[in-house]
Amino acid sequence: MGVVVIDGSTVRDFVNDETLFKKSVDESFAALDLNKDGVLSRPELRKAFETMRLIESHFGIDVATTPEQLTKLYDSIFEKFDCDGSGTVDMDEFRAEMKKIMLAIADGLGSSPIQMALEDDDNQSLLKKAADLEASKLSSS
Ligand SMILES: [Ca+2]
C-alpha cells in the first residue's frame, strides 16, 4: 500500500467506467441507508457529507463555517439530490447527483493532482475508489 496520485482524468475514468461507478455508488448508497428503507433521509445524507472532506471543500466549506451555515449548506445539498422534492433521496437521484459531483470534482482537480493514501480504509469514499482504479492500472501495466 502507499499513496496514489489522482487528477481530473483519474476521476473521469472512474465515472466513465459505468459498471464500476454504478457498483461503487450503489455500495455507498447501501452504506448510507442506515435504516435500510431504500431511501436516504436528510440526516442520512448529511452524515455522508460530513465524512467526505473533499466534497465539503468542493462546496466551499471552510473551518470558520458556523453550525447554522453548515445546516443551511447541507439543506441545500439535500435539495439538489432530492430532484422530485419527495423529502427523501432514492437510488436514481443519488446516482445522478453523485455523477455530477464527481465530474465537478474532476473539473476542479483538472491537471493538478492530489495525493491519496491507499491505506485509508474509508470505503465510502468514491474518490478512494477512483484512486484504487488508478492503482490497479499502474500495477497491471
Ligand atoms: Ca434511509
From TrEMBL:
InterPro entries per the UniProt record, alphabetical: EF-hand-dom_pair, EF_Hand_1_Ca_BS, EF_hand_dom
UniProt KW Transcription regulation keyword: no
EF-hand domain: residues covered: 20-55, 69-104
Keywords for the protein's UniProt record, in alphabetical order: Calcium
Entries under Pfam families matching the protein: EF-hand_7
Calcium as UniProt keyword: yes
Record GO terms (molecular function): calcium ion binding
Name the UniProt record assigns to this protein: EF-hand domain-containing protein
Biological source species: Carya illinoinensis
